[in-house]
């Protein structure tokens, strides 16, 4: 049985889009007959044992901590994770190291892979220098930005094969000089076995939140600046002009939460905007069930043009209507007028009109829902798409040079 060791920034039991994608990958690979484990670096912040089983998956932790000035600290993190990979490999003997961004994980896997003589796959879920700009913790072109980008280039260069989650990231790597044949795509996906019939609307919860009986526009996720939620709040007065009984449901939290709440409180339609705060993951379907349209008004930036989000796919799997800004990452997931609607980014008026038009087109809702669910089933089902990894693994293990390296390990 082929053994794959996934090298990770953090994992379950922490909850994030990153850990849910990891869970979906490992679960699908187990179902395919692969023997999989994960190992996390020093940035996994949850307390727990050195070896932890969560949801039937095994994760190993890297001990210790890294100190020092910026640059040296990260290099020490890479070294600690590489040493932990080598130590685990002496016991468990993986056939392939499959590292997932950020670049610190990729570089640790490359270092360990060379020492062990086994191939390395490096998977990029986002360029972390662009994510830092989107999170307002860095600026494009800064020293930190350029250093992070250089680490990414080093990880890509050292890996035997690279995976990205979308065409936007692949195209950017090709523009940097990476050979297209070295790059595969594993799109964001949904584990459809987790989605049966959509949950029924909980009228008691709707009443408790003051949503009334009119249409509900929803956002469920993290409140980052690049999500454009300020534009969504700014769109509400214009939407209310056409649909006075419409409501906005905001589920989640994050760095922009306080600013967004203040903006909503100052809105002339403040009573139509509801914030729930963060809710347990097990409760999320109850909140999806309250919504008619899930809205993703991401601002236009390198991050949103290059990276495809997961949330619109989850909404389609939940049989929800989807409206999203017309940025590159959304265009890879949503076909305007077929599986959802797209509106101009950074434009509250256009957002409001798109939402109002969709509310007016109630007779078309079932078609949107059915086409959206079919799109996820045909193109973004983890249990189907995980076969793409198998092709990459077999090509690496089938190469005579890599086979000798694997046997030597």
From TrEMBL:
Gene3D superfamilies: Glycogen Phosphorylase B
Pfam families: Glyco_trans_1_4, Glyco_trans_4_4
Domain of life, source organism: Bacteria
Segments forming domain Glycosyltransferase subfamily 4-like N-terminal: 17-189
Record protein name field: Glycosyltransferase, exosortase A system-associated
Organism: Aurantiacibacter sediminis
């Amino acid at each position: 049985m082929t053994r794959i060791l996934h090298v990770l920034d953090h994992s379950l039991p922490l909850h994030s889009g990153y850990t849910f994608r990891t869970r979906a990958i490992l679960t699908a690979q187990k179902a395919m007959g692969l023997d999989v484990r994960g190992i996390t670096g020093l940035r996994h912040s949850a307390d727990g044992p050195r070896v932890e089983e969560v949801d039937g998956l095994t994760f190993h932790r890297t001990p210790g901590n890294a100190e020092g000035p910026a640059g040296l600290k990260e290099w020490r993190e890479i070294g600690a994770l590489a040493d932990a990979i080598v130590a685990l490999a002496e016991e468990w003997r993986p056939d392939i190291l499959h590292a997932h961004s950020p670049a610190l994980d990729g570089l640790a896997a490359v270092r360990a892979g060379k020492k062990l003589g086994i191939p390395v796959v490096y998977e990029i879920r986002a360029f972390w220098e662009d994510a830092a700009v989107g999170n307002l913790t860095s600026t494009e072109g800064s020293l930190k930005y350029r250093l992070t980008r250089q680490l990414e280039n080093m990880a890509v260069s050292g890996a035997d094969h690279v995976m990205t989650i979308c065409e936007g990231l692949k195209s950017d790597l090709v523009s940097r000089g990476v050979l297209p044949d070295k790059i595969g795509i594993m799109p964001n996906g949904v584990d459809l076995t987790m989605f049966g019939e959509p949950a029924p609307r909980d009228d008691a919860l709707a009443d408790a939140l003051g949503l009334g009986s009119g249409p509900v526009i929803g956002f469920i996720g993290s409140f980052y600046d690049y999500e454009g939620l300020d534009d969504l709040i700014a769109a509400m007065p214009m939407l209310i002009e056409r649909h006075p009984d419409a409501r906005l449901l905001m589920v989640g939290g994050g760095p922009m939460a306080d600013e967004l709440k203040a903006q909503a409180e100052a809105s002339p339609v403040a009573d139509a905007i509801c914030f729930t705060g963060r809710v347990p993951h097990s409760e999320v379907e109850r909140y999806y069930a309250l919504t008619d349209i899930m809205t993703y008004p991401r601002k236009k930036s390198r991050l949103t043009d290059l990276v495809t989000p997961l949330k619109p796919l989850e909404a389609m799997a939940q049989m929800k209507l989807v409206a999203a800004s017309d940025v590159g990452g959304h265009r890879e997931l949503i076909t305007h007028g077929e599986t959802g609607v797209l509106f101009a980014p950074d434009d509250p008026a256009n957002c409001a009109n798109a939402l109002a038009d969709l509310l007016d087109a109630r007779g078309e809702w079932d078609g949107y829902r059915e086409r959206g669910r079919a799109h996820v089933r045909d193109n973004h089902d983890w249990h189907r798409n995980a076969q793409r990894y198998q092709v990459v693994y077999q090509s690496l293990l089938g190469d005579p040079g890599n086979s000798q390296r694997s046997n030597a390990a």
